[in-house]
Amino acid sequence: MPLTFAHDNSDTFADAIKQKIAEFNWQHWEVSERLPLGLKLENEQGVLLAGLSARTFGNWLMIDNLWVSDALRGQRVGSQLLDEAEKTAKERGCIYAVLDTLNFQAKPFYEARGYQLQWTQEQYPKTGCKYFMTKTLSSVQTNI
After folding, report:
1. Considering only the top CATH level, what class is 34-136?
2. How far is residue 81's CA from residue 140's CA, in Å, rounded to a whole number?
3. Closest CA to 113 of 88, 83, 85
4. Average pLDDT over all residues of the chain
5. How far apart are CA 110 and CA 113, in angstroms?
6. How far apart are CA 54 and CA 119, in angstroms?
7. Domain ranges of the chain
8. Contact 51/40 with Cβ under 8 angstroms?
9. pLDDT digits (tens, 9 = 90+) for 18-72
10. Contacts for 41 with CB less than 8 Å, ≥ 6 apart
């Protein structure tokens, strides 16, 4: 009997599939706590000037987004955001960090802060590329 697949490009459907995968994964992972990590800098009027969104999960800090307004770029705001996120992640027990950045974004910025290129996704989305980078936040400690 042939199957008929329906198209559904809605956010609701995408979230439902994401939830189904998460339910499956939670049955197999040894870690059940994924914590959000958000940092922001606002002016006196509450206008967002810089921010970082990430999450910690087991040994990993997973950085989703780091943004600094044009007016503050070059003033070490991004470095301070990253330092604070890494500090918080270490306090939560993280040993590693992972992120991705596009070819026109911040690869040199992350490299200067100890992130190492692990993999490049070429031709993304057509002629550019996406860099996947990691960093060891702290050494694994053993009881000897």
Report:
1. alpha beta
2. 24
3. 83
4. 92
5. 5
6. 20
7. 34-136
8. yes
9. 999 888 887 887 766 789 999 999 999 999 999 999 999 999 999 999 999 999 9
10. 48, 49, 50, 51, 72, 77, 81
